[in-house]
Design brief:
By secondary structure, this protein is an alpha/beta fold. It is built from 12 helices and 13 strands. 33% of the residues lie in helices and 22% in strands. Strands 3, 4, 5, 6, 9, 10, 11, 12 and 13 form a 9-stranded mixed sheet that branches. A two-stranded antiparallel ribbon has the order 1-2. Strands 7-8 form a two-stranded parallel ribbon. The two termini are 31 Å apart.
């Protein structure tokens, strides 16, 4: 369990991308708390942000609007929140989005790889406005494990954990496998959680009970390739009260890898897992504000149902060059005594 720190004057910083913050976060207001030009350094384990295709990018299309919805729901003003935690941060852009929208005083990030944590902290410090004083901690480890022994509780935890167990023979610590995870060995996982490939979300929620302050909440960001009802039930099985905080869609990034993995697990009897033609998603969500889409999540799911394509059919289409997408749900998980 290592806390990482980074020197702002580190001359080794060599950004992989340099882009306007508005393009990275898709905010419709001036940038206030982070630098207007964002410079991001990557490691071999982190994906390049999809700056040229925001609908393919998790932060632009999911994390930022989820933080905005959370801010509006709880009327978080300029004072912001005190303690924010992001699990599996990758490049740290999700933390930058939280800084811009929620202005936390303290941020904790985690990831499986020390190099990723080191680089993410560097990215956060490099791209945060000098007018802001933010305490940043970084921990290396799986899920909540490195946090269970520290004396810190959080107002908001954000998790965007992978759904896909690694296919046999693939090494999690080699290259970009952040969309996958090692199959858990817990024997008490609910069968439906395993069938729907929601294991990591469930396991993290079970670990995180003692990480929340009174009135603290967790935002679970999940590609909803299974029914909304199944995802909400998973949150309930982990002893939380679920509320839909965001319902949206994104273009499937790394489609050969991701759709192919879902297809393989579907062949093994899990799922089924569904994708949609991009034009159907665009038309279905067209004209709906983020708030309206979220309020009508179940109705939208029903409208999309005739166009759902199972994973095995989807990978055949991907291999022919067809671009597909999927819906995304951000579920706010609240402990019963915090609701």
């Amino acid at each position: 369990m290592d806390t990482q720190s980074t020197n702002l004057n580190d001359s080794s910083f060599s950004p992989a991308i340099s882009t306007p913050a508005e393009a990275l976060l898709l905010l419709d207001r001036p940038i206030c708390h982070i630098k207007k030009i964002i410079q991001i350094e990557l490691t071999e384990h982190t994906y390049l942000p999809k700056v040229l295709s925001p609908r393919s990018d998790w932060v632009a299309s999911v994390a930022t609007p989820a933080f905005l919805a959370f801010k509006e729901k709880y009327q978080i003003g300029q004072k912001g929140i005190d303690d924010f935690l992001t699990i599996g941060t990758g490049s740290g852009i999700d933390a930058l989005a939280a800084i811009e929208v929620l202005t936390p005083k303290h941020i904790t990030i985690t990831d499986l790889h020390k190099s990723v944590v080191d680089t993410a902290i560097k990215n956060i410090r490099t791209n945060t406005s000098t007018l802001n004083s933010i305490e940043i901690d970084g921990f290396v480890g799986n899920l909540a494990t490195p946090l269970l022994q520290i004396d810190r509780k959080y107002d908001l935890i954000y998790e965007n954990l992978p759904n896909i167990p690694l296919i046999d023979g693939v090494d999690l610590f080699e290259g970009q496998n952040s969309s996958s995870f090692i199959q858990p060995t817990e024997k008490d996982l609910p069968e439906t959680v395993k069938t729907d490939l929601l294991e990591l979300h469930y396991m993290f929620l079970n670990q995180a009970h003692n990480l929340l302050k009174n009135n603290g909440r967790i935002l679970c960001s999940i590609g909803s390739r299974v029914p909304i009802k199944s995802i909400l039930e998973m949150v309930k099985q982990a002893n939380y009260i679920p509320n839909i905080r965001l319902y949206t869609w994104k273009i499937q990034s790394e489609p050969a890898e991701v759709v192919g993995s879902y297809a393989e697990h579907q062949r093994r009897g899990l799922g089924p897992f569904h994708f949609y033609p991009i034009e159907i998603l665009e038309n279905t969500f067209s004209g709906l504000s983020s708030k309206a889409a979220t309020a009508n999540a179940f109705e939208i799911e029903q409208k999309l149902k005739p166009y759902a394509i199972d994973a095995e059919t989807s990978i055949a289409l991907v291999n022919k060059g067809k671009r597909l997408g999927h819906t995304v749900i951000v579920v706010e998980a609240t402990l019963p005594n915090n609701s």
